[in-house]
Each structure stands twice: as structure tokens, then as C-alpha cells.
Records
---
Amino acid sequence: MHSFRILVAATTAALMATNTPALAGRGDDGTVKILFWQAVSSLNPYLSGGSKEVYAASIVIEPLAGFDEKGVLFPRLAETIPTLANGGVAKDLTSITWTLKKDLKWSDGTPVTADDVVFTWQYCTAPGGGCAEKAKFDGVKSVEALDPLTVKVSFDGPKPFPYNAFVGQLSPIIEKSQFKDCLGEKAVQCTAANFAPHGTGPFIVKDFKPNDVITFTANPYYRDPNKPAFSTVVLKGGGDAVSAARAVLETGEYDFAWNTVIAPELAARMLEQKKGTLTSAFSSTVERIQLNPYNPDPALGAKRSTQEAGPHPILSDPAVRRALALAIDRDVIVEAGYGAMGQPTCNIVPAPEIFASKAKTWCGKQDIAAANALLDKAGWKKGPDGVRVKNGQRLSLLFQTTTNAVRQDEQELVKAMWSEIGVETELRNISAAVFFGGDVASPDTYQKFYADVQMYASGFESTDPEKFMADFTCDKIPGPQNNWQGANIARYCNRAYDARVKELSHTADKDKRAALIRDLNDMIVNDGLVIPIVNRGEPSAISASLKGAILNPWDSQLWNIADWHRAR
């Protein structure tokens, strides 16, 4: 577990000491091949917050600062990290001032300026834009260019943790001249910019076939003349986790495969080939089940799964929600699907350690008897077929998740566990490229949540979960009003919770912040709409011939691709 601290790298040299530098000149190592079995649908993380889009985009566009694999905050486009000590953060915590590195250029050869940073804020906060990362700018009152290289971000009150806006790959800087005509409702129409953004990163887009393959080439204007070592990146999408792992660990066709969650015994057989390693980065990623609080009945049309649809006919009952959680045996799920790459958890915030609540003793172990007793008391009676019924409503649920062998096994296990308490469960799986794709026209995205129950994994990229906790506030619920891009996928809405989030945003003392975060975690879990299952490591398969690829639990898994190189 990570202790609570924000580690600040004082200079670029300090960062370089923690990473393996490329051993070749720019482009000398040819092509590196990456496999995302969840295919990429866009290279604009502001329009799709799925990890696959964020990671792919991080090859091209960058934030002012990022987090390394140890949680160390380091400058990317910024000259240094602003702090109270160096005067970059105001003494009253109401502003932070960033200074850009000199002579930065976009991949089209034009200068990067403070106006681009200001524009990025305007882009994400423009009305009607449905920005997937709008929460990164919560509390930001203004962003102003003080001069061509200096940007001041002012907050609407003291901001104890000012490293959300423009920090990490969820909040990269985009070029004003390229996106100036893409504000608000026009954002989704800017296909050329969304598929091939100009960037400051080590690579630029050469060709993009959505939901298939992307070819990147070395950025001739990248700020380090000796990097990247590879001249070309080919990022292929599609398939499944097993085939992705096999392509690196058995056939050697690819160099890097992300999100290779596979059965432990299968992983062991693949590793026997000695063509690569399977490495996992543990942080805050939690596999969770979400219970829809709103009615997803297709007959409701555009209102389905929104507040206008009304309460869910089954899951609005807190006794049902608690019973479903009590029926789950997390130890069995971890043993069957994750092995050493998973840890049972009852927390939506499992790390850093100071934030991990110890209050959830009721959900630590499966308790079928208690779950059945709750349902009996709530009036859900078992019928002749063993399925419970109340007021003519069968306790029958549609359970959806992504297409993945581990997840399908998980679904089957949960279905069997729920059958022990009289729940009928229909299983559905959806291609991950569609489920996480963010296509507003698709009925199958996790934002739409056109099911009773859904399961996936996510976490937070920084070492402070304030933004993550803010994603569960009432105003972040996806719906037609925000093009289904709200971050509150679970549709959790609790005004007392919202008030505590606001309190957190103005609390500087680390122990008080930690206590608030634990309380917020407990509110979410005890309400029962989100059922944490597994603290999941984010595994990737890495070829033995690929060097410098360091997994990062706090940022993009491709965060240091500029340092990747071929073994010699």
C-alpha cells in the first residue's frame, strides 16, 4: 500500500533517475507493437474517458504534469511542479501558477503557449460538450494566461490538492488552433481532430482505423532529440484478454499487451515459454458490481435508466441491495479468476492505505443465511421455482459486463451465489470496445446502463482520490442532458454525500482528509448501489525483448513510451 503523500520531483533530472533511458537514437529501434484487446474508438480522452482511449491518446497529447510509477508528481510540459514552498501555489490555496517549458512545439511545428492551456479548460467546460473529464476542473474559477509561458489557475475557494486540472493523462493539453471550432455540441463532429490530435508527445498519428488499428510515427518536434527509440508504434485493437496475452507470451507477435486479466493456471502455462513477463500494477482499481437505481425498462424509451424513469422496481429496495452483496463470496472469485493478481475488498477506495476503510466488516465474508433473512423480512417470498416474488414482481435481474473469459466466469459464479437467495439472473456480455466506447448512439455503453446490474473495473489515477469521490455526486450522473458522458456511472445520488465532497474540497489537513474519504467510501458501499469485489492489479504482458516499459498504477500504462527501447 502507498502512504499518503504527494511526492514532488524537483527537476527533470530526478525523474530521469527513476526511469530507464532509451539506449538508441530517435527511431533506431524500428517498430514496437502494442495490443489492446479493447479496441480504441477515439484519441480524444475528453470525449471518451475509457482507459483504452486515455492510454492511446497519451502517446500523443500530454498534460502539464503526471505521476510516475511510484506516485511521484513530475513535470511534463511544465518547467517545474508549483508548490507552496516555491511560490507556485498561493498561500491561501486559492490558485496555482504553472510555467511551461521553453521552446515546446506542437507536432505541426507551431509553438505551445499558455493560450492552449486556457483553451483546454474552455473546451472541457463548454456547455453542451459532454466532456468526460469535466470533474478534473471542479472548483476551477478561471484559467488565465499571464504571458505566453505562464498560466494561472484560480479556484473558487482553498484547494488543498491543486493537482487535478491539467495533471495526469485524463487532463492533457490540446492545441487551440486545431480544436477552436470544436466547442460545445460541435465537439463530437470534429472527427479529424478527435482521431488525429496534434500533440507534444513522442509520437504522432499516421493512420487511425477506429476500433481496429492505429499507426503512430516518431514526432519530429519532440523535445528530446534522442527519443523515442522506436520510429513506429502499431497499436492493434480487438480480440480478448487470453489471445492478447498469448500474442506476447507464446507467439511473440506483439511486444506489449495491456489488461491481460487471465486465469492463473493459464498464465502459468504461457509464462513457461519464457518469451515475456506478466506484470501487475496494484493501486486503486476495483472490480465492482453496480446496481441500477433507475428503471431500465425499454418501454420507457429515452427516459430509461435516468431519474425520469423513476426508481428501479427491485433495486430501490435497500434490503435487496444488501442481500445481493452478502451473497457474494469474494474469496472464491479471487481464487478462480485472479490468483495473485487480485485481493478481495469491500472498499471502493482500497488504496493508499490511509484512505482504506476498515468499517465494512459486514461484507467481508459471504453470509447466505443473513441475505435470505433480509429478503424474507422485506417481503420477498420464494415461489415454486425458487425465485422470490413481491407484489407480483419477480426478483429477476439482467446482469451485463464486457466480453472477457474471466468476467464471464465471474458472472457465472455470482449468478450461482445469487440463486442461493432466490434471485434469477440473466447474463449478458458486450464487446469492451462498445461497452467503454462512449458512442452516444449505442444502447450498449456502460454510461447508458440499460440493464439492472453491470460489472467492470476502474479506479483513480492520482494518489489523492478527491476527484474520484467527486465523480459520485448527483450532478455527474450520465443522461441525455450531458450526452451520456457523466462520470457517475453508478447513478449514486445522496445530497449528504455531495455536502461531504464539498467539505473535502476545502480540507487541507491530511488526517482530516483521510477521515472524510473513508466516510465517503462507507456511504457509497453501505448504500449498496456499488458492490466492491476485487482490488485488481492491472496486468500487462511485456516481451522479453522490450526494455523500459514500467507499469504505472497512477497514470497511463504507456506513460513512459518515450523511454521504451529494444534489448541489445
Note: The chain has two domains: 7-241+539-566, 286-461+521-536.
---
Amino acid sequence: MIADVGARERIRTSIHRASPIVTPDDETTTSATWWHRAVIYEVYLKSFADSDNDGVGDIKGLIDRLPYIKELGADAMWISPWFVSPMLDGGYDVSDYFDVSPLFGTLADAQELIDASHRLGLRVVLDLVANHCSSEHPWFQSALTSPRGSKERELFYFRDGRGENGLEPPNDWKSIFGGPAWTQTRNADGTPGQWYFNLFDSSQPDLNWKNETVRAYFDDVLRFWFDRGVDGFRLDSVAAIGKDDDYRDMGFAPDDLYRPDKWAPVPFFDAEGVHEVLRRWRRVANVYESEKFLLGEVVVRDIDRLARYLRRDELQSTLSFDLCKVSWDADEFRHMITTLHDASLTGHSWMTWTLSSHDEMRTVSRFEDEGAASAPGDVATTGHRRARAAYLLAMALPGSACIFQGEELGLWEVTDIPDDRRQDPIYFRTAKRQIGRDGCRIPLPWENDGPSLGFSGRAETWLPQPSGWADVSVATQLDDETSTLQLFRSILALRSRIFSDDNWEFSWEPSATGVLALRRGPNFRCVINFTGEPVRIGDDDEVLVASSPLSSDREIGVNCGAWLRTR
């Protein structure tokens, strides 16, 4: 019998707070819903706040800091995976989807967090990893001891190898994390066994989503957490669960990494079967009286492919990570924003705009000029000015917006982490050629002194904090009206007042080369100056908020922006 880690028993004993099924066709899609203009704050749990002084963030630490998120102006939290996991990829390798890792707390702690968040008016969006599980999941452990062609192995992608004695991978497919996407097993007698597919790390075997057992299992996962009050899921790398039965070589070079936004269509990513799964999940979500939000991480090469995920019976929104890649250029921003906005469907699906995440370089560092002489902590750097202006633009767009923890402090990418402290599997799978994602995951600085700057009662944290972060801590910035934290608070407070839930449209006004002027409604404009010279605003323009103070001549500075209202 295939293990199911007690899923059915736990489902039966949970309280099912549900109403009759409502299909997407029955929904009133013109009515405003909470996610249409929500500001979602991404919490990377390991690095947010530590309550038990072990150097790792946890659920109780997050509970203690919930007022901070609420006062920032967020409407919801997206929380990184808190499931049971060996933590070989920061919790994105799950061995039990129905319980909480002891590293983070208990199931009771999770319930306390959900309830406390709701009392503050914060929604909870949980990160769900469905393309793969951990190699320590009972299913995979059972598959390893089962023979070729067994039901246990059909839950994954096991294939015979090529060459003499099957010692070569089944094909040339490459991992997103580097190296081959196939890992060979060993038979009980020690001889070489079959290979299994892992699009990411070898500790993360891909699940076979054509298998009904897999599909039913994740139906139960969604219900388990929805029943406990979770308001939605951010679906990690959801396009990866679409795979075809086509195992031909793709022409990868030995050192290639698979990049879904760059590589031509492949059989193991974004295949048609993913949409059947998403429609199934939407039906599960629609059972509940309170609307459940399905937010997809959809990284695909073609905008038409992206639009398919936003059909009215699939996802309500996708995270638009394209803004995490775009250069500091007015035309590139205009083109990317217009293209992504046009992929969504009025009244049915909206974009969730983001400039960063736990997988991306910090915005400040990404926008910094190469060879800049100023220190990373200097808030007058080009990177800081551009990041502040970019968030002003992102927050002006119709749809929801996501802020990765620490962006509101203007934190920068930490690049000098010692080798023996790094943990990202990308770093090791690429033989240290790719620096990986540890640099954006450093524990937050809450205070301007003390052990780990208020993150923990312990000085040594799971990743080391850099010198200079005391000057950009929460405590330091709360007392500075010109700080990035106070700017974010001002932007979010204004956003909640001036944009209506159903205001989906925007337009670009004619403007000078290198200047973006976005209009929403009859009176609101967001103007961003990408040029090398100051830009003067009109005498009838009232400044609502600016990324940096305007000059006495009413000029928006270089790499700066402002929200304006025409009087």
C-alpha cells in the first residue's frame, strides 16, 4: 500500500467550514474581491524573526511581529513553506504537507498565527510546492525499495538509463539548479538502478501529475489548510507540473542550466496537463464561502502561454517576476508592464507585481551602477534611488503587489558570505559558479544594536548578517521620516485610499524620452525619471508622495519618481 502520511484521517477530523460548490461561471466577476488590489508581504520564515533563540526564524517570532506588517500597510502575507522538511532547499523540499516543521513550531502555532493574522485583518497565503516533494517523503522512500514498474514508482518519473549497464542518464535534460536533471538510484544488491527525474535538486524528485493518487493527495493538502483558515496558496513553480510523455534529447550543452523563460518549449515544463490540475484546484477552492486565492509562480517564455494560466477557471493571479529582470530603462519598463497587463483578463484575473523575492537579487543591488564607489549601506546610492522609484511605479499599477521582506528597509544583496556558511543548492550544483540565493535571505535587522540586531537572542544566525545593517534596521528607520521604511508606509497608505478595487485600466501619457508617465483615472499620475537630468512637473500638479524630495524648481530628480494629482 502506498503511504499517505495519514492524510485522510486528518481530513476527516478537521472542521470543514464550507458552502455549496460555486463554479467560476457562477461567480460575479465584476465585484471587487480582496486580492484585486492587495499588498502582499512575503515572509521568508527562516529569516524574519526568531522566538526561541536558535538563530532561525519561526512562527512564534512572526506572530510577535505581525503588528509591524499590519502597520506597514500590507493586506496579506505570503509565507514560505513551513511544512516538515529536511531543509535541503530551505523548506521547498517537503516530506510531510500536513504538519509543521519542528524548526518553525507546531501545527498549533500555525493555527495561532492564522487566527492572530485574521484578527488584525491580514490574510494568510501559504507557499505550496507541488511539482516535487522531498526525497525523504514516505512515497519516495517506498519507491526506492519497490521494483521497476511498481505503483510506488509510478508516482514519480523513474526511467532506465542509457549506455552500458544503464550508467548514462535517460536523456540530456538539465536541472534549473545546474547539472543533469536525472539522479541514479542503487538496487538493494548495490548494483546501479533506475534514474529519477529532478528538475531542481536531487533531493526533490518530481511528482507524476498524470497519476490520480498524486492529484487526490494534493486535493487533500489544499482542503487541510483551507479548513484551518489559510486564505490562499502561492503555487511554487506551478508550470513545472505540466509534462508530456516525450523523453527525446533537447540539445542541452553539458554546462547548461534549464531556464524556462529562455529555452524553447520542452516536454518537461508547461505542458497542457498543468491546466487540468489548476482547474481542479480552483474547484476545490470554490467550495469555500470565503474566497480562496490561487497565486501562481508562472515563469514561461511566451506571453500567450502565460495568459492561459489566467483563464477564468484557473488562477486568479500570477506573480510577474519579469519586473525582477528588467533593466533600468523607461522603454523596457513600459513594454514589460503593458505586455503583462494585457495578458490578464478584466474582472477575472489580475497581475501581482513584484520587484523581488527570496529567489531574486535585492532590488537595491540589481539597480546599482556597476563600479559604484559608494558603500552598499549608503542610502544615497544609485541603487537605492532607483529601487525607491521602481516601487513607486509598481505600487501605482492596477492589480495586487508583493513586497519581499526587507525591501521596505532598502536592504542590499549580501555577497561576501563565507563558503562554509552558504546553503543554497544552486551554489553547490554549479560547482560554485552560480552564487545562488543566500544573499537575499539574510535574517532581518530589527534593532540597531544587540545580538543579531533583534532578530534573535543569539548572535550567530543561520546566515550571517553583514556589518552596516544596524544603520538600516527597523528601529533606526522608524525615527527617520526620510527613510525607505517611512516611504513605503506612505505609499501603501495612499494606495489604499486613492485606488478603487475595480479600477483595472491605466494609460501611458505622452512624455519626454526616458520619462514614464502613468495615468489612472482623471487626476492621478505616476511619473518616473529614468533620464540623466531633472524633470520639471506642471504648476497644477500636487505632489502626493515622492521617492526623493523635489527641488525648489519642482523638479523630479534623476532616478526618482512621484505620485501626482492634477488640481
Note: The domain at 138-197 is CATH 3.90.400.10 (Oligo-1,6-glucosidase; domain 2).
---
Amino acid sequence: MNTRQLTAICRRMMPAVALCAALTLSPVAQAQVEQKPFVVPELQTWRGGEGTFTPTSSARVVYAGGNEARITASRFAASYKELTGMELAVVKGKPRQGDFAFVQRKKKGEADESYTLRISSQVTAEAHDLRGLQWAASTLLQLTRQDVALPQGEAVDAPRYAMRGFMMDCGRKFIPMSYLRSLVKTMGYYKMNTLQVHLNDNGFRQFFGNDWSKTQSAFRLECDTYPGLTAKDGSYTKSEFIALQALADSCGVEIIPEIDIPAHSLAFTQYKPEIGSQEYGMDHLDLFKPETYDFCDGLFREYLEGKDPVFRGKRVHIGTDEYSNAKKEVVEKFRYFTDRYIRFVEQYGKQAVLWGSLTHAKGDTPVKSEGVLMHSWSNDYANPLEMKELGYRLISIPDGYVYIVPAAGYYYDYLNCQYLYEHWTPAIVGREKLEEGDPCLEGGMFAVWNDHCGNGISVADIHDRLFPALQTMSAKCWSGASVTLPYAQYDARRAALGEAPGENESGRVEGGYTQAEVKAGSILPIEQAGYGHTVTFTVEARPEEKGTELFRSERAVFYLSDPRTGKLGFARDGYYNTFNYRLPSEGKVEISIECTNRNTTLYVDGKKREVLNPITLVAFQEKDLADFQPGEHEWKPLMYNPRAKMYYQRTLSFPLRQAGQYKSRILNLQVK
């Protein structure tokens, strides 16, 4: 039994005299009762009751209605156990005192995703669809994370906007499937219902010697139609991608797969050079060649056709971002191409989604708008008022507000969450403002663009940027302009809600961790210690071979003796960094590694030895190329453009899951 459970039981055992006194509430106490309990996004309405609810020792999760209620009840029980350690039986029937109940019932005129939550001597959540039930469960889990004793009262809750989510650029940086699976769980926990997976893209050629053939590109999905197209440095099998969609669906999240054409398409032209544009760059498909259409047809068809297609959801994104508008005939061909692939995916029963480009590509060729969903990201590319007039449904994703480009030096490294919380709603699209609740506006999203391939950014870095943005965008896309809590109070409390139960991508080690000795090859109960932690240990040194690992996790390795130099070092996400320090072959030494979201610091016997800060990599003309390789990491940018800069990151979320096969003794491990 944890402290929160014990506290809750003590409250329930309050003497009768105190209970009677509590029934007569002062005005201040009454105001406290009526105050909304804190969750993200905040409840739309709350009518407070008196006292609290705590499940009994024989509490159950009861469901009634359709299969959606059963699914929600089972997921809630598993998540509740993750939070509290308490096992709740899942049964069909009628609830009794001390139970949780999820009831699916049809009610005429009820909005999608809405739910009613009543907390008294039992907890009853009612909704007519899966998402409504899931969001009720998320509210209960967030309340439970703060205190097992839940405030009594009634909430009626519904989102202001139908689509709430974000886009992840997996093309320029491979994002492991394990992270995407963790992510959809946390999205469901915060009532975010849309994850767009950007499956292909490429780096900027100025970072690769101005040579398209050497520029990074990737298509991340298994492909049988074009053997060899799938990226070698990380990809998803079809079965993995199908399983992700199934998991996401059970969490109330829709996966929108994106194949970005006809620009951002270097992965396809490197595979089949004859379909690349010689005039506008090989990241552009040549729209005047029949082979281009044959290739794209075959690519989309592989994932859309059949009774059991790879793309399972109701929407598919066809790209159409940032193609050249240099000539009228090119614009007209681009418009024809866009219209063709809208209709292509629609013939498989999917709603077409695209990046807005039709202000940038004004012309005479008609492009279908009815039933088409458009990302409104730039007013210069697609003015939202013009697109509304044309009949498009819009997703607000304005680049100047909600684009994260990690460590790039432009757009946002971290979103300005305070500004977004206090001033932005999905109705604000760049310089234009629509009416709140405008029928053309489906909702809002933010984006993570991994533009600078090779800049050392890790999945942990991306998560550190993404998580506070996800919480804030959840609040704003659910409530619009109707958030009521001052930002300072919201910000002070949001982090404590954490990720979805059982997920810990932030690497939070609550209360720290100690172990007197870590035996070689042993398994620790911690995956990683994220930013804000310091890991300290004593090495009773023995000679170690190069490549000897101290600890390993799923995504990182820390070396006692790195493979190249025999120094302390680490590798993660394909990047390799070392400290300029080698352990002695005998004797004792205390090592501390301090991990932040900006740098990684080594302390030896309590003294700061080295700080691995970001490095600015400056490009040179080829004739002036310097032999410049900062630090001792393996990756070296191939940049010959004097205007190009890259900010190489050397952060570490310290791995702890498995000890290596070292000869030394590792003593007094502390994680603080």
C-alpha cells in the first residue's frame, strides 16, 4: 500500500463528529468544493460535491453497453494498477458502492467524444463512443495520480475541436516504433486524438556537399512493390505499422500516415533517378513524366488495396508541400497532380489530407475541395480564408506558432507554451483569425520537424521538447479560448501528471536510486535516468578492453572504455561521443555524470572534468575544407556551404537497464 492509499483510507476513517462538521460548509469551503479539480485539458464543467471517493478493497471496474465499454474498463484497470498497485477485477453488470463503472449508452444529439463523470459513493463514466469513455478514464487516472481519494462531484466534458494532435517527422530522423507506441498511450492520456506519421523526407543538400546523391533521405515503411526503397538506417515493417494503428485506436488516437509527394521526395528519386526533376532539384518529382505517376500509384496502392490494407484509418496524407511555382505550366501540373492523388486515395474509401499550397500555386486547373482536409501551416502557401472560401476543411498548424525544429536555430527549439496557453487557439492561423468554432476548422496540431540530419538530436531530446508542447496543445485544442487557470498555476502542476501510466520516456527516477554494488551483467529496475539527473558510481578499476560497456538501455550505451580510444564515452541514436578521460588501470575513482537537456558533464572525484556542450559546426567551401572533427564522435558532416551551420548536440539520457561485462567493480551507484 502506498502513501496516497494510506492517506485516503485515513480520510475515510474520519470520526463522525468531524464528518458532521464538514457538512456545514463556509462560503470559502463551498468555493473550494466547486473549484474544478486539476486535469489537462481542464474540465469544461464541474459541479462539486462534498467529501471524496476511494475504492474499497473489493472494488471492481464494471462495464455496461457495447464492446467499447469493455475495452475501456480493461485498459483503465491495467493503468490503475500501474499507478496504485491495486488490482481491480473487470466485470460486466451493475456497479455497487466503491466501484468504477463505464457505461456506453446512446443519447440523441450528444457530441462525439463527450462524456459525463459522476463521483460519489461510486464512480460512473457515461459516453456514447469509445473516445468519450477513454477520455473519462484519462480524467480519472490524472486525478488518481494526484490523490487516490477523488473529489466528489459531476463533470460534463467535451472538446471544442474535433482534431487535436501533432505530426512527427520520421523521414529525416528515424523514430523507433517503441517510442511511437509509448507516445500514443500518452496522447490518449491527454485526450490528443491524432498522430500524423511523416514517413519520408530528406535533408538539405547544403549539409551534404551540395550533392543530391549524397544527401540524406529515407522512406521508413517496408515496401514490396519497390524492393530496396525502404531506408536501411531504420524502418517499420508492415505488421509493426498495423499493430501501431491498432494500439493507437484502442487509446482513442488516429494514425494518419503521410507519404510526402511531389516535393520532399528525394528518397524516391534516389531509388529511381529518372522521375526526379532536373530543373527544380532531385527532391522534386518530375510531374511531366508518366513514369512519375506510375511510381506513385504503385506506392500508394501497396498500402491501400485489399481487404486488410496497411493503412487502416479513415485518412491518408498525400503531402503536396513546397513544390516550385516558378512557371505557370509547372503550377498547373502541380494542381493536376494534387487533384489526381486526392481522388486516388478517395477511391479506397479514405479522406485525403494535404499540406496547403494552393495560394502559392494559384492557377486554372481545378483541385477537388469537397471532403478534403488541409493543413493550414503558412498563409503564403495557403491563406486560410481563401481555402475556406474554396471549401476545404482546415487543420490549424501555423509554422510561426507550433513548429518545433530541434536545435536548428530557426522556428522553435521549444514551443513558447506560455504564449500559446494565454493567447493562441486553433482559430489563429498565422496572420489570420477565424471565428472560434468556425465550421471549416477541424482542430489544431503542432509539428516536430527533424530538419538537420546529423545534428546529434536524440529521441530523448525530441521527447523533452514534445512533452510540454503536447500538454499545452492538449489544453488549447480541447478548450480553445476557454482555459480558466492562470498559466503559472497550470505550469506548476502539469508536470506532476506525468506520462501515461507505465510510460517514462522522460526517464524520471522518483526518489532517486542507490545500489551498493552492480555486478557485471546484472539487470537494474531502471531503464534510464533522464535530464535533470546525476549518476554517480565508484570504479574499483581493472584493465578493460576497448568497447567495454558500463550500462546499456534500449537506446543508449555508456562505455567504461569506448571502442575507439578506450576513454569514457557513450553512444545513442547512431551518435558517438567521448570524454577526454581514461580510467586508471587500478585504484578507485568516483565518477559522476550530470545529464541536462543542453549538455553532459563529467566529474572525477568530485571535480568537474569536462562539459560536452553543443558544438557549432561551420561549413566551408570545398577548396577550403578544414580537417575539422570536434570531439571524438564518429559522424562528420559533409558541408561545403559557408552559409550552412549545424548545432551538434551531445546530450545523454543515462542508460541503466543492463550492466556490461566489465572486469572492474562498480560500487555505490547513486541516481539523484
Note: Residues 169-497 form a domain with the TIM Barrel fold (CATH 3.20.20.80).
